[in-house]
Design a protein that fits this description.
With about 450 residues, the chain is α/β, with parallel strands linked by helices. It has four domains: about 30 residues; about 80 residues, Type 1 dockerin domain (Orthogonal Bundle); about 130 residues, Rossmann fold (3-Layer(aba) Sandwich), CATH 3.40.50; about 150 residues, 3-Layer(aba) Sandwich (Rossmann fold). Helices cover about 40% and strands about 10% of the residues. It contains 16 helices and 13 strands. The longest helix is centred in the first third of the chain and has 25 residues.
């Protein structure tokens, strides 16, 4: 057979196979795009059509596929995107069309656009993408910046930060103050924005407060000038805040290292729960004062407690409480506390002074109790537990509570890995200032 004829036959065959493949993809596209569970999605930004941890060409293709499918005369090919792809509506206008394609493409290209997201308080709000890297942040949420290795973006703080966290966050005592926590005003933010100090505000209100400033920001027009970031920053949902902040900044790779550590940590958390089986019921208290009147317990629904749920069960009396519960007296504590007690220690001090301060406070408040005398009060520092380092705190608690299953040295090594990669103060040492290692407690 003539070689030219053979080449033509082969070429036609290849084209036929390719055409068949395209036809099959077009007619079986629903099999190539799995539906998305909103509850399982960690990056809750509109435009993240496939619900993974980034916005990219895959999302662009899904949005285009939804448009093509829903324009087909055959209604059996139509896609219920609101049910199966709830974040595909990139411009959040209630429909999927070419405008959504444009928004997703702008996000990929890092071009200016309005970015809608599902915020911490389960409202849909927006930022001006990419958000400014001149950031003002309330005290708990600012810990997302070290997690994406962008602490240098912090330019303003609330008045709580330098009072309580100057040992954790270097330089905050010299930064402009936006106002009091939970009471930062549109006026103070506008002033800092107009001065060029900040272009983004990261809000965390805590307790039962909600996004107290967003509606005012919209009404005043400030929301269209600077960005308001209201994302999770406590407990296992911290990964949402990390991923969303990096995406909003226009550099999704900023979250890569923390995401890798977090996913490893969550595997560890699963291991803890599997090994422990039936978790112990343990009293959990907060300690930040040597004053007995400040003795307070907390339950599983509070932000600082969200990580604790991985290793303990809380006492029934505190289940459902959304704020700290004052115990009132040593007698009340003695009558209600379990034999082992978890202590979240919250006090600004130099790390070399941590053990002495913990022992001083505990001895003054709990010195007469059997839990203190029997060395059954297990202390973890507040710097870990509500925050991105929470899994390491859980590991340490597991080593205290279940020593036959977990080794304290391994737990401290795990914390050290976090400190080496994400702590912003130099010389952070997992074995100095994160858990009480007084007499009888060191492993």
């Amino acid at each position: 057979m003539d070689k030219k004829i053979m080449y033509v036959i082969v070429a036609v065959a290849v084209l036929a196979v390719a055409a068949a493949a395209v036809f099959m993809l077009a007619n079986n596209s629903s099999e190539n795009h799995e539906s998305v569970s909103f509850d399982d999605t960690r990056l809750r930004i509109y435009g993240n059509a496939n619900g993974d941890d980034q916005i990219d060409k895959t999302d662009l293709n899904i949005v285009k596929w939804i448009i093509d499918s829903n324009n087909d005369a055959d209604v059996t090919k139509h896609v219920d995107w609101q049910k199966n792809y709830p974040l595909a509506d990139a411009n959040y206008d209630g429909k999927i069309n070419d405008e959504d394609v444009t928004v997703v493409q702008k996000i990929i290209n890092k071009e200016n656009t309005r970015m809608y997201y599902f915020n911490k308080y389960e409202r849909v709000t927006y930022v001006n993408y990419p958000i400014s890297d001149k950031i003002g942040a309330e005290y708990l949420i600012l810990q997302l910046l070290p997690a994406i290795k962008s602490y240098d973006m912090l330019k303003a703080i609330d008045d709580t930060t330098p009072k309580n966290y100057s040992n954790v966050y270097p330089g905050v005592e010299n930064m402009p103050v936006m106002g009091s926590w939970r009471e930062i005003t549109i006026e103070s933010l506008s002033d800092l924005y107009n001065k060029g100090t900040i272009g983004t505000f990261m809000q965390w209100t805590g307790g039962q407060n909600v996004d107290y400033i967003w509606d005012k920001a919209v009404a005043s027009g400030l929301a269209d000038k600077m960005s308001f970031v209201i994302v999770p920053c406590q407990g296992p949902d911290v990964i949402q805040g990390v991923l969303e902040l990096a995406c909003m900044l226009g550099d999704q790779h900023l979250s890569d290292e923390y995401k890798a550590w977090y996913d490893k940590a969550m595997g560890l958390m699963d291991s803890i729960e599997q090994k422990v089986g039936a978790k112990k019921t343990v009293t959990a208290v907060r300690c930040y004062s040597p004053n007995v009147s400040q003795m307070a317990a907390f339950g599983p629904a509070q932000g600082p407690a969200l990580w604790f749920n991985k290793v303990i069960n809380f006492q029934e009396a505190y289940v459902g409480k959304t704020n700290f519960t004052n115990i009132g007296s040593v007698e009340n504590f003695t009558a209600s506390a379990t034999d082992e007690v978890v202590v979240m220690f919250q006090k600004n001090c130099d790390w070399e002074d941590f053990n002495d301060l913990v022992e001083d406070y505990l001895s003054q408040v709990y010195g007469s109790t059997t839990q203190f005398k029997n060395e059954k009060m297990y202390v973890v520092d507040f710097e870990m537990m509500p925050f991105a380092a929470g899994p390491a705190g859980c590991y340490i608690l597991a080593a205290y509570l279940y020593p036959e299953l977990f080794d304290m040295e391994d737990a401290l090594d795990f914390l050290q890995q976090y400190l080496d990669d994400f702590a912003v103060r130099e010389g952070a040492d997992a074995r100095a200032g994160f858990t009480y290692t007084g007499p009888g407690y060191s492993k």
